[in-house]
Specification:
This protein has helices spanning 8-16, 31-34, 45-69, and strands at residues 74-84, 87-92, 97-101, 110-118, 124-130. The protein is of the alpha+beta class. Strands 1-2-3-5-4 form a 5-stranded mixed barrel.
Length: 135
């Protein structure tokens, strides 16, 4: 309207029924004030748990299939410091978790390995193809 100065801030403020924010206040509005669409009813927790369980099972199957497809291939692994009952772990360049007999000289080194088999715990067993000590 004539004689009135409108700014984006004052237009928003008037629609929200709020005064313009000062230096210490913050904007907040519920979805009814903002015009955002409503999402409907929340999915019951039992259904969410079942869906989560199904997704985890699918993920485990796909991971196992990926591991099986890589058996007998040669990869590069970075062995980690972690040691558990004489076993060390690492990850290949394509994120396959591997395990090998613990050897302190292999910690934090890249090694060429051959992937052998998926153990019952879902981790790939490997053997060294060549020993390379990183300095």
């Amino acid at each position: 309207p004539a004689g009135r100065r409108w700014s984006a801030t004052s237009a928003i403020s008037s629609r929200c029924g709020r005064k313009e924010p000062g230096p210490t206040s913050a904007w907040a509005s519920s979805s009814s004030e903002s015009g955002a669409p409503k999402l409907g009813e929340a999915i019951p927790m039992e259904i969410r748990r079942e869906r989560s369980k199904q997704l985890h099972m699918l993920s485990d199957r796909k991971k196992r299939q990926f591991y099986l497809e890589n058996i007998d291939s040669e990869r590069t692994v970075l062995f980690e410091q972690e040691e558990d009952e004489g076993i060390m772990y690492g990850f290949t360049e394509n994120y396959i978790k591997v395990k090998h007999a613990y050897e302190p000289d292999l910690v934090n080194t890249f090694q060429s390995i051959k992937l052998l088999e998926v153990d019952r715990d879902g981790i790939m067993k490997c053997e060294l193809v060549s020993l390379t000590i990183n300095v």
